[in-house]
């Protein structure tokens, strides 16, 4: 334990996460039943006890905080989140609605089908500037990815809770299933998201024979997704693919994107390729860093299959990060998958989203120092709106972490410093790093729980 409080109450039963893990007194079955009955356990971090959501993933049962209500938990509770105005989430009250059956209903800024021969009108996937904080009535691709990420609590790192997401392969075992859980309770108006979304993944690694079944199931899901993209008379359906981007390259008539675990390439025209390169410089930089590590990973996986875990541990320790993509695609007359819109999100090797390569380095340092922190996600807010880069959560009070890394936009720097002064006036503690002034970052504020975690 690192001082976090993990006690819950369901009816007259009090239990801990450890009790779920060991399935004490058939707890998992009780929780699954409670989920079916739409009952919610209480988190006992402090009164009034906030409710949490029961999430089922195969045989596993997890508990998650209610999205946008994380501020009702105590700061040292793992479900604690700053209120939604501290991230891009605060802009979507009109675009995101929770239905009585628990489904999250999104109003999308793009159509899920178009007239045959028509192209979806494309816009910049991310505002390049502007401090527009107006409420949005619709949500775009990147906003959707960020919202799923936040709902799955993947925007948060806790050494007490996170026994997963240690490296690359955990996409398949942990991150993709967590996203699948969110998508299973997502609706786009009258349609369930599962009908239109495909999460690219490799079959779960398993020593038992079920991996063959999983491999077949994966093939089936992909075949279903492709079938749905087939043109139906006048209507051209579109689908959404989410996955880890392997590479983005020039092709004869534009560009080609490879997604890990997806056997088909995704294609886009020159203007689409240029738009991606312009809108996502951090993501392109992370892909460039990743390229030289890939042969090492293949060799290490090979060594692991022969019983030698040493190379894989070396790869893990130096893995630069990940780039997650979300793509709206349609099928061309030749049966190719063509990207209509795209959003990219760079993450640390533990799948914590980052906005810059400086943030990437700080995210890795925080994890190696076993800190609890979260990343306020930007969604589609203009890059000029200064959200905190990270928020430390294992300190006596929230600490806002600011990296002053953008030097070609003086207006942005000024707004960020203005914001910092507001925080300070409000008594919020800040940690700051200006890479142009110092190559190494200042020490992080000490964890409130440092002593306890040393005992563990
Ligand atoms: Zn709590």
Write the layout of secondary structure elements.
Blueprint lengths: L6 E4 L2 E4 H6 L4 H10 L5 E2 L8 E6 L2 E6 L30 E3 L5 E3 L6 E3 L25 H11 L4 E2 L12 H15 L1 E3 L2 E2 L4 E3 L10 H19 L6 E3 L1 E13 L2 E6 L6 E3 L1 H10 L1 H10 L3 H12 L4 H9 L3 E10 L5 E11 L9 H12 L4 E2 L15 E3 L6 E5 L6 H16 L3 E5 L16 H6 L1
Parallel strand pairs: 7-10, 12-14, 16-18, 21-22
Antiparallel strand pairs: 1-2, 1-3, 4-5, 6-7, 8-13, 9-19, 10-11, 14-15, 14-17, 15-16, 17-18, 19-20, 20-21
Bound molecules: zinc ion.
The site of zinc ion has 7 residues, from loops.
What report would you give on this structure?
The chain is of the alpha+beta class. It has two domains: 1-80, no CATH class; 81-204 and 212-433, no CATH class. The strands form six sheets. The chain has a five-stranded mixed sheet, with helices on both faces. Residues 127-131, 206-210 and 452-456 have low confidence and may be disordered. The chain has twelve helices and 22 strands. It starts with 6 loop residues before the first strand and ends with a helix. Bound molecules: zinc ion.
